[in-house]
Amino acid sequence: MEEKKTGTGNRSRHKRGIGETMANQPKIVCNNIWKVFGPNPERTLRDMDRSLSRAEIQEQTGHVVAVRDVSFKVQEGETFVVMGLSGSGKSTFVRCLSRLIDPTAGQVLIDGEDITTVSHSQLTDLRRNKMSMVFQHFGLFPHRKVIDNVAYGLEVRGEPRIQRHEKAMEVINLVGLDGWAEHYPRELSGGMQQRVGLARAMAVDPEILLFDEPFSALDPLIRREMQDELIRLQEQMKKTMVFITHDFLEAIKMGDNIMIMKDGAISQIGTPEEIVANPADDYVRAFAEDVPRYKVLSAGKVMRPTKAKSIKKGVVPVQASAKIETLIDRIADVDDALPVVDLSNKLVGEIDRAIVMRAMQSEA
């Protein structure tokens, strides 16, 4: 499969951990990742007809192709969402990223270093210092207080108790759990326990955070609160995040870019707007058809060309990246079209009430 470019733009790089980051190099690069389960996965991958479906390969070989030739890039500071239904291979794939599961073939590059080839000591260093994971099931130690659960990664590193507790308290307050440091997990609600899990992952100050359906066990209201909380934290931290979900609404809310998987393979990679506006196939279209388009589409996507050469004095232009949802109240109060500008404030089009109404009616 041809690699599809993703990303939110180039950012400065840090030189730490295994490997060095080169200028403009993506934080994570996956090249042709395969994961085959069975008694002889390497031989099966070498000899099988790769044009066959997952079911056909399983019937012929007795092996399961869980991840199938997956390639993509994630820029530093990006939230990259991997989305798919149960059995699509998304959870297996995220475990290949951290080598909790070794891929059968392919490369996983972190800052240009192929972690599928590093030693166990290097891999341990990667997990302790550069990468943390948050699971669906919180995995908290029931006999440890919140502060000691959060400080666990720092304890494994060998940091003194005073220093690790100071850092843990900072993160506990950051995730909104101030006042709960001396409580045990059983005294916390599900949402609060997941905040502890998030704080524990953040306490080691990783460059990369991996989330495997972290909110799927929570009640809908708490789930939305945790989504909003993570978005808020990401605005502050600007970590590189890979977020796994089976919920398309969660995917478009959380992701800068989304990779949709089916039967272990990529169906489509793109921004939420690209996927909703131009689904690649019927599988993706089924997810996108019930999404309110005005929540995803931007002014730049639905604007029309303008004959104007400049912006009238006193008129505040609309950013091309602005979501239609954010323009509803403003556009309702004006009769004329509003100018639309790009990031450099160059006039690129115009938008009016009729365009916004069509977008809200899913006709844009």
How would you summarize what this structure contains?
The chain has 364 residues and is an alpha/beta fold. It contains 15 helices and 13 strands. The chain has a 6-stranded mixed sheet with strand order 6-7-8-3-9-10, with helices on both faces. Strands 2-1-4-5 form a 4-stranded antiparallel sheet, with helices on both faces.
Describe it for me?
The protein is α/β, with parallel strands linked by helices. It has a domain at 295-360: CBS-domain, CATH 3.10.580.10. It is built from 15 helices and 13 strands. The chain has helices at 41-47, 54-61, 90-98, 120-129, 146-150, 152-157, 161-174, 190-203, 220-237, 248-254, 272-277, 282-288, 299-302, 328-332, 353-360; strands spanning 28-37, 64-74, 79-83, 105-110, 113-114, 131-135, 208-212, 240-245, 257-262, 265-270, 318-319, 338-341, 347-351. Strands 6-7-8-3-9-10 form a six-stranded mixed β-sheet, sandwiched between helices. The chain has a four-stranded antiparallel β-sheet with strand order 2-1-4-5, with helices on both faces. Helix 9 (220-237) links the parallel strand 7 (208-212) and strand 8 (240-245). Helix 7 (161-174) packs across helix 8. It is globular. It starts with 27 loop residues before the first strand and ends with a helix. The model is unreliable at 1-23 (pLDDT under 50).
Strand content: 15-25%
CATH topology of the domain at 295-360: CBS-domain
Strands in their spatial order, largest beta sheet: 6-7-8-3-9-10
Helix and strand string, N-terminal first? EHHEEHEEHEHHHHEHEHEEHHHEHEEH
Uncertain segments are 1-23
